[in-house]
Specification:
By secondary structure, the protein is an alpha/beta fold. The chain has helices spanning about 40-45, 50-55, 75-85, 100-110, 125-135, 155-165, 180, 185-205; strands spanning about 5-10, 15-20, 30, 60, 95-100, 115-120, 140-145, 165-170. Helix content is about 40%, strand content about 25%. An 8-stranded mixed beta sheet has the order 1-2-4-3-5-6-7-8, sandwiched between helices.
Length: about 200
């Protein structure tokens, strides 16, 4: 049975952080961040949250600090996700991170990858800056890029796959930076296949 999305707020540091939650928390979790022009609502509007809950995943889509309905937190990028994951008791989630949210996700992958089941990197910013730390991290990773991305060039998808031994890539043809918005069906197909693959051991217990 499909569960409704619930709008919730959690306190991180002194800020109220808003998020949408759906699905059964006993099921494998998918934690979705967002890009600079977007919010948790983007994933709802795109149908991503619905598709994932229909596949029996537990979803949490965050409004990052200062975006959507979340209050701002200054100079808190590195500590934000670890605190959030801890407070939400998200053990072994798959982290989905497009664009600007790379400033949060990449340091989390570097320092806390044992807490994740997988990482979906949708042209996140910061790969070049973090390349030395990302090298050799064995977390299952899916790089998703638009072939026409002018903001984070598609060569960085190749770099990520080169750095991370368990990384694979999907290049969505003829779309730019916000590739998941322009080619939602192909994106969802790749996302669900990857999430099912990396969580299947947990699902079969």
């Amino acid at each position: 049975m499909e569960s409704a999305l619930i709008s919730k707020v959690i306190k991180i540091q002194t800020a109220n952080i808003h998020y949408l939650e759906g699905g059964n928390p006993q099921n494998p979790s998918v934690l979705l961040l967002h890009g600079a022009s977007f919010s948790s609502k983007t994933w709802k509007d795109l149908g991503t949250l619905k598709r994932l809950t229909q596949k029996n995943f537990h979803v949490i889509a965050i409004d990052l600090p200062g975006f959507g309905k979340s209050e701002s937190i200054s100079d808190y990028h590195a500590e934000f996700l670890p605190k959030l994951v801890d407070k939400l008791h998200l053990k072994g989630a798959v982290l989905v991170s497009p664009a600007m949210s790379g400033t949060y996700s990449l340091s989390f992958v570097v320092n806390h990858s044992p807490n994740l089941q997988g990482f979906v990197a949708i042209a996140p910013v910061g790969i070049l800056k973090m390349s030395q730390q990302l090298r050799g991290i064995t977390l299952p990773t899916l790089a998703v890029w638009g072939s026409e991305d002018r903001i984070v060039p598609v060569e960085q998808a190749d770099l990520l796959v080169e750095l991370m031994p368990n990384a694979e890539k999907i290049i969505l043809p003829k779309v730019g930076h916000a590739c998941y918005l322009k080619a939602p069906n192909k994106f969802h197909e790749g996302l669900i296949r990857f999430v099912e693959k990396v969580t299947k051991d947990e699902n079969s217990v």
